[in-house]
Design brief:
With 372 residues, the protein is an all-alpha fold. The chain has 16 helices and three strands. It has two domains: 211 residues, Orthogonal Bundle (Citrate Synthase, domain 1); 97 residues, Cytochrome P450-Terp, domain 2 (Cytochrome p450-Terp, domain 2, Orthogonal Bundle), CATH 1.10.230.10. The chain has a three-stranded antiparallel beta sheet with strand order 1-2-3. Strand 2 and strand 3 form a beta hairpin. Helix 8 packs across helix 16, helix 9 crosses helix 16 and helix 13 packs antiparallel against helix 14. It is globular and about 70 Å long. The two termini are 35 Å apart. It binds acetyl coenzyme *A. The site of acetyl coenzyme *A (ACO) has 19 residues, from helix 15. InterPro entries: 2-MeCitrate/Citrate_synth_II, Citrate_synth-like_lrg_a-sub, Citrate_synth-like_sm_a-sub, Citrate_synthase, Citrate_synthase_AS, Citrate_synthase_bac-typ, Citrate_synthase_sf. This is Citrate synthase. It catalyses: oxaloacetate + acetyl-CoA + H2O = citrate + CoA + H(+).
Amino acid sequence: MSATKGLEGIVATTSSVSSIIDGVLTYHGYNIDDLADNASFEEVIYLLWNHKLPNKEELKSFKQELSQASPIPDAVIEQMKSYDISKVHPMAALRTAVSNLALFDEEADEMNEEANRRKALKLQAQIPTIVTAFARIREGKEPVAPKEGLSFAAGFLYMLNGEEPDEISEKAFNKALVLHADHELNASTFTARVCVATLSDVYSGITSAIGALKGPLHGGANERVMAMLNEIGDEDKAESYIKDALANKVKIMGFGHRVYKDGDPRAKHLKEMSRQLTEVTGVSKWYEMSVKIDEIVTNEKGLLPNVDFYSASVYHSLGIDHDLFTPIFAVSRTSGWLAHILEQYENNRLIRPRAEYTGPDKQEWVPLEKRT
Ligand code: ACO
C-alpha cells in the first residue's frame, strides 16, 4: 500500500457538476468561456443545482426565492458585533457566522432532499449578506439590508457600499462570480463532500469548505496576490522581486495549478476584465504590473497564472477591501459546494481512504512513572 502525495491524479468520485478535460472547464457540459461571456450568476447557480439552464419563468422565480431568503437572523449580526472585529479575518468571521446560521434553522438537521434544497437556497442567499454586513460593521457602519429586484452581483455590491453599482462594475462582478462558481474536485469541494458523506448536515459541509478555501494554497491566494503587488509597489521592481523569490523557493501567489499545466481557462477572462477596468478607474498600474509579473514567472519558471492572479487586480479596481477577496470567492463557490453536497447525498457512500503507515513498530508500553 503506497500513498500518492496530495492525492495527485487520484479519481475520488464521479460527478456531473463540472469537468476539466484536456484543460477545458465546463459546468454540466457548458464551456466556461460561453458562460463567462453570456450567463448571469443566478443562471449558473440554477444550472449547477438542477443540471439545466432555467427558462424565463424558472429564472424569475429562482431570483425571487434567492432575494427573499437573503436576510440573516439579527442574532448573527449581533454575534459579529460582539467580538473585536478589527482583529478578525473576514474568512474566520464567515466560517463562524455560517456555523451560527445553523442554530437558527429549525431544519438544519433534516436530511430529506426538499429540506436540503431549502437550506442550499438560504445559504447561497445569506452568505453575501454575512460578508457585506461584516465589512460594514468593522467600518462602524450599519449593515445594509438586501434590496429586492437587483441581480445577485448588483445586490452584493449594493449591500457592501450602500449604493447600487454602475453597469460596468455589475457586469465585471457577475463575470467573476460565474468564473469562480465551480471547479470539479478542488480542495474545498472535496472537503465539503467528505464532511457530508458522513451524513452530516449541509451547514457543516459549507462550514468545512470555507475552512479549506481560506488557506493560501487555495482561495486565500487572491488576497496574497494583492499583498505581493503592494509589496513590489512598482513595475520596475517586479523583475528583481520575482527572481529573488524564485531563487529562494518562495511560491508566487496566483501561479501554478495541480490540474492545469497549459494554463487556467479562467485567467484570460480575468486578465481582460482587469485591463477593461483600468479604462474605468484611470489607474493602469496594477494591471501593468500584473502583466509584467505574468511574463517573468512564465519565462523563469514556466508557470502560468491561475484564477486568483488577475482576480486580485479586478477586485482592487472595483474598490473592494483586499481581505474580502477570499470571502467573495466563497460567495461564488458556495454554489458549487452546494451542487456537490446535493450530488453526494443522492448517491452517498462514506469517504474513508487509507494512510500508508510510516511510524515506529512494536513499541513497548512504559508506565508513566518510568518515562523520561
Ligand atoms: N511559485 C513558485 N513555484 C511554484 C509555484 C508557484 N506559485 N507553484 C508550483 N511551483 C513549483 C513547486 O515549488 C514545485 O517545484 P519543485 O518541483 O522544484 O519542488 C513545482 O512547481 C510543482 O509544484 P507543486 O507545489 O508540487 O504543485 P501542486 O500541484 O502541489 O500545487 C498549487 C499546486 C498549490 C496551486 C501551487 O502551484 C501553489 O502553491 N501556487 C501558489 C498558490 C496559489 O496560487 N494557489 C491558488 C490555486 S487556484 C485555487 O485554488 C483557486
